[in-house]
Specification:
alpha/beta, Alpha-Beta Plaits, 10 helices, single chain, Rossmann fold, 329 residues, GMP Synthetase, Chain A, domain 3, 7-stranded mixed sheet, 3 domains, 4-stranded antiparallel sheet
């Protein structure tokens, strides 16, 4: 098909492409081609090509660009989906709509092996949920996050890809040679990257399946020598690490306050605690701050270094993080 193109020397191609894109005349439906040292950049409107390039407009056969079909292209509306590795997750109450979306996901060009619909809230001490498998068969996947890989089974362990940015923020504060205790480690999304930063990490979780995946993920990411997995209740399984931690991760937002005495017992002379909480919007940080100060008592000076809203959790409720420094008095 013949289309108008701006023809320039190949070495000028990127500069001219950027100018055409800024002028909003670059034709995304046809391929950019190179022949005999000349690059041909298709444009949508020759009259709108910037003045000094207008004399370079020629007519040329250009192949149509293959477009990626999204679920929205098929459905005619944009469904709410979440990706975790090669699993696509839905949260649809209507069965017919859920299956319609699942069919569109599988028919689209979106890389996907399984489509799941949430079938229950997160429940129990192990924080897992039930799933309805709408397409595919497996609930195990490999999730990639900021250069690390995490093997996990969503039916057996808790994992939220929505917290990737928050995890990356916290991990970026870790110094090499720190001793870290991740009190509710799951499959290792904090522990593994912290070890990659050079920290020694004790990673504890009540879910033995999560600990099995944690071991695998430490091996997979080359940090098994710096991660010590501990299966069990952190209140009972970490006595040998008392008074040693430079940093503690407390990502159990509904009930982390019940573990603050253990956190204080694990803290070294100076220790940063990343304390996650869920509270009402009227006072999102106050309850956690008061609980931390009460647990530290007269043994530590407590300084809240960061108050951060991580995300909206429910109407009028926030998932928040307090970065708190304890210094032994």
């Amino acid at each position: 098909m013949t289309v108008p193109c701006v023809a320039v020397e190949r070495e000028l191609g990127e500069t001219v492409r950027e100018r055409l894109a800024e002028a909003d005349v670059l034709d995304g439906d046809h391929r950019i081609e190179v022949a005999d040292g000349t690059i041909y950049l298709p444009v949508t409107d020759p009259a709108a090509v910037p003045g000094d390039l207008a004399e370079r407009v020629v007519e040329r056969d250009a192949a149509e660009r293959e477009r990626v079909r999204s679920p929205a292209d098929i459905l005619g509306y944009d469904p709410s989906i979440e990706r975790l590795g090669d699993i696509v997750i839905l949260d649809e109450d209507d069965d017919d709509r859920a299956r319609e979306v699942a069919d569109a996901v599988m028919a689209s060009d979106l890389p996907c092996a399984t489509v799941l619909n949430r079938a229950s809230p997160i429940e129990g001490e192990l924080r897992v949920r039930e799933w309805e498998v709408l397409a595919g068969t497996g609930t195990e996947t490999v999730h990639r996050e900021y250069g690390h890989e995490f093997l996990l089974d969503v039916a057996e362990v808790y994992f939220s890809p929505r917290l990737a940015t928050e995890r990356h923020r916290v991990i970026g504060t870790v110094d090499p040679d720190e001793f870290v205790v991740d009190m509710f480690a799951g499959v290792g999304p904090y522990a593994v990257p912290m070890a990659a930063h050079g920290a020694e990490v004790v990673a504890c979780d009540l879910n033995e399946v999560a600990i099995r995946y944690l071991r695998e993920n430490a091996e997979r990411n080359g940090v098994a020598d710096r991660v010590t997995p501990v299966a069990g209740d952190v209140r009972e399984a970490t006595d040998e690490y008392a008074d040693a931690a430079d940093r503690l991760v407390m990502n159990l937002p509904h009930s982390a306050d019940a573990f603050l005495d253990t956190a204080v017992a694990l803290a070294g002379d100076e220790c940063v605690i990343h304390y996650y909480d869920i509270q009402h919007e009227d006072d999102p940080f106050g309850p956690g701050t008061r609980a931390l100060r009460e647990a530290a008592g007269d043994d530590y000076d407590v300084v809240v270094e960061t108050e951060r809203v991580v995300r909206s959790y429910a109407p009028h409720e926030y998932n928040v993080c307090l970065d708190v420094r304890l210094t032994r008095a």
